[in-house]
């Protein structure tokens, strides 16, 4: 079942269907695809997934009421609207065997609520490219102070797009002088209760590498208890984060390459020495 759903999630991304089914760490990422120039470059590249941020703001040079645009807070202007971003990706994917997916990152419930019309157009069953809806809906380590996106409203709206993968994370306070921390059993338990009560579609849990490496028991519990939702984890990291590489590798291999997306700097990815793509010959 998990392999079949992995194929459905990643559709026909650039690495080939069978390989991605068995090793989701081969999925590659472009980040902050928030303007026309970068979108064009990302579509022309061999990356699998385009991550982009949505805020409510204005298109440069245009007047009118605020709309969902591609920008990272605190920016409130862009040359690219969410509607144009999604339609451009759809046009690029039209008729192609190798389709690129999108991960839409929402930092506020207001941006998510006002994006529903645009998302609905591309969450229909006949649309085949992967669509992820991401938000940090709970406070996490280490005593994170960033305000999470309101969880019940996010999950309620996310349920209206059952084709989409819900990417549900925690805010974090890590990096720089903060080099130790873990996801607590209470933080994992709160997420588990929310998901069990309100989610009935595929879900992935983005976890910060340096924290996840210290949290294997509770993350394994979370994934075991949500297996019926074909759950996965998405390991991510910021540049310079302290990471116990051996522990992280053990976590990834224990969870399984078929249930782990890897979105970390290349230097860290190389240190993990994960099994290579199946079609790489030595």
Can you describe what's shown?
The chain has 282 residues and is of the alpha/beta class. The chain contains twelve helices and ten strands. Strands 1, 2, 3, 4, 5, 6, 7, 8, 9 and 10 form a ten-stranded mixed beta sheet that branches. The longest helix is centred in the last third of the chain and has 14 residues, at 185-198. The radius of gyration is 18 Å and the shape is globular.
Question: Radius of gyration, Cα only, in angstroms?
Answer: 18 Å
Report helical residue fraction. Answer: 25-40%
Tell me the fraction of residues in β-strands, as a range. 15-25%
What's the rounded overall pLDDT mean? 92
Approximate shape: globular
Strand segment tally? 10
What summary fits the major beta sheet? 10 strands, mixed
Task: Please state the oligomeric state of the protein chains shown.
Answer: single chain
Structural class: alpha/beta
Distance between the termini: 31 Å
Provide a count of the helices: 12
Low-confidence stretches: 1-15
The succession of helices and strands, N to C, reads HHEHEEEHEHHEHEHEHHEHEH
Family: Belongs to the menorin family.
Domain Menorin-like: 23-268
Protein name: Menorin-like domain-containing protein
InterPro entries: Menorin_dom
What structural keywords apply?
single chain; 282 residues; alpha/beta; 12 helices; Menorin-like domain-containing protein; Menorin_dom; signal
Strand and helix map with partners:
Blueprint lengths: L1 H9 L6 H6 L6 E2 L5 H9 L4 E11 L7 E4 L6 E2 L3 H12 L7 E6 L2 H5 L2 H6 L9 E9 L11 H8 L6 E7 L13 H14 L4 E6 H4 L3 H10 L6 E5 L8 H11 L4 E4 L2 H7 L10
Parallel strand pairs: 1-2, 2-4, 2-5, 5-6, 6-7, 7-8, 8-9, 9-10
Antiparallel strand pairs: 2-3
Helix pairs in contact: 8-10
